[in-house]
Write a structure and sequence with these properties.
mainly alpha; about 475 residues; 4 domains; Serine Threonine Protein Phosphatase 5, Tetratricopeptide repeat
Length: about 475
């Protein structure tokens, strides 16, 4: 019986033989290999020498095999690159361990080559393997880019879906039929029957919710890794928190009304993965953030309050997945704690504190925090900052961690609409009136602007040191193609 070692060595030699035959048939010096021909030959010779000297699993093979894989990849020979990368991965697993993180760049390279070939399903499977590997190392900072890039890919997938496309990942991820969490306990539903279901139909809301939840799981894992390493001053940590917050806003803007907690039976096709790791890990990922306790000297607020911020009681329930509002609140609180931990300038601490205050509208607690900010800045002699926060020329549209849709740019504008409206004490836009427009502004443009103002939430505005019951606003909104 041929041993595994002999078979793997023979496989690599077969790959190299295919390359040699193809090169000879095309006329090596004038072929598409071009100037890489000599380099390729030197790499092959190094590989053969190392194998003869130290065997097929020698650590010394990693370098030349990786060079050969990159050469094939850069040249567009993706099938050959895949074969060699698999060989490199065998060596890495033998020398560094079955679950070593040294495999991360190899798996990423495999995914890139499989996608270039068009084998989307294989690339998807490899991505799940990559995530599983990263989750085995919850404290290793090298996993953060893996989680962040995966989350970014899911949000890009959502944008494709919202644009009317049907990428194959929708089916591969079974986003139509993922298991839903039980509304009472937050627990995953029992095992689902793969044979009886499929992943090809369902509601749009379900797909949006599932894709975003998948992204949020990866954001949560990345944040948790950075917290375990106490990287409270990291800009990347802040960026990850903001990405997590924006994912909820993206879902809201998409008009999704689906909620976790629908007790539905998952529908999974025979060709799809049956473990659906991202969904099953959502509760664990979010709970670890909900229960995270920052060091006392970090969590203490630099803005003194008579009472500490109230925590959503649903976050405190054991073994229960936090609500969307609870996740958002915890993220906002961590962002403030990071600024305090880094001894950030007062203005940056206030910006983080204001996000928490904004999130409490229309409750009275928001105004208590606004007043605290006003007094703090007044004592610091920062009247300009008070005006910028509470009486800006362009009203503040909430939340502030996404671009202000009313802050249009005159540069390159094709026209404009002058509009007047009122902002109520609790941030609602009312009594919208179109005052004037350029001739190319259409009725559709006007309608969109009116609807934008009516559905937006605004930060209440201050006049003469007090929050007015009604604040009139007039602004020019620029149109762009």
């Amino acid at each position: 019986m041929v041993s595994t070692t002999v078979r793997q060595t023979a496989n690599l030699r077969a790959v190299l033989l295919v390359v040699a035959i193809a090169a000879t048939a095309a006329g090596f010096s004038q072929s598409r290999f071009g100037a890489d021909a000599d380099r390729q030959q030197r790499i092959i010779e190094r590989i053969e020498q190392e194998e003869r000297a130290n065997g097929p699993y020698s650590e010394g093979l990693i370098g030349p095999l990786s060079d050969l894989a990159l050469l094939y990849q850069d040249r567009g020979d993706h099938d050959l690159a895949v074969a060699v990368i698999h060989r490199v991965r065998q060596v890495v697993r033998a020398t560094e361990g079955l679950h070593s993180l040294e495999q991360i760049p190899l798996l990423q390279q495999l995914i890139a080559n499989e996608e270039a070939i068009g084998r989307v399903e294989t690339a998807w499977e490899l991505e799940q393997d990559l995530l599983t590997l990263a989750r085995r190392h919850p404290g290793d900072i090298r996993t953060v880019p893996v989680f962040r890039e995966t989350a970014a890919k899911r949000m890009a997938l959502l944008r494709q879906y919202l644009a009317g496309e049907s990428p194959p990942q929708i089916i591969l991820g079974c986003y139509y039929g993922w298991p839903r969490a039980d509304g009472a306990t937050g627990a995953s539903q029992p095992d689902f029957n793969v044979a009886k279901g499929d992943c090809t139909s369902g509601s749009k809301d379900e797909v949006i919710r599932a894709i975003v939840s998948d992204a949020q799981t990866s954001y949560a894992h990345a944040i948790a890794v950075m917290l375990r390493n106490e990287l409270y001053s990291s800009e990347e940590l802040r960026s990850l928190e903001l990405d997590l917050l924006r994912s909820f806003e993206t879902m809201r803007a998409a008009g999704t009304v689906a909620r976790r907690g629908a007790a539905t039976v998952a529908r999974v096709s025979n060709s799809a993965r049956t473990d659906l790791e991202p969904w099953r890990s959502w509760k664990a990922a979010m709970l670890q953030l909900a229960e995270w306790e920052l060091p006392q000297q970090v969590a203490a607020s630099g803005l003194e309050e008579e009472e500490p911020p109230k925590i959503d009681p649903r976050l405190e329930a054991p073994n229960r997945a936090p609500s969307d509002d609870g996740i958002v609140r915890r993220s906002l609180e961590r962002l403030l704690a990071y600024e305090i931990a880094a001894s950030a300038p007062l203005q940056e601490q206030i910006e983080a504190f204001m996000r928490i205050a904004d999130s409490e509208l229309p409750n009275s607690g928001a105004f208590e925090r606004y007043e605290l900010v006003r007094k703090t800045l007044e004592e610091a002699g920062a009247q300009a900052s008070i005006d910028e926060l509470f009486s800006p020329k362009i009203p503040v549209v909430l939340p502030t961690f996404v671009p202000n849709p009313l802050a249009s740019d005159a540069t390159g504008a094709t026209g404009y609409i002058d509009v007047a409206f009122e902002i109520g004490r609790y941030g609602k836009g009312e009594r919208v009136r179109i005052l004037d427009t350029t001739t190319n502004a259409t009725g559709t443009d006007e309608k969109r602007l009116v609807e934008l103002i009516q559905r937006s939430r605004f930060r209440p505005r201050m006049t003469d040191g007090e929050f007015a019951r009604v604040s009139p606003v007039v602004l020019r909104y620029y149109l762009a193609e």
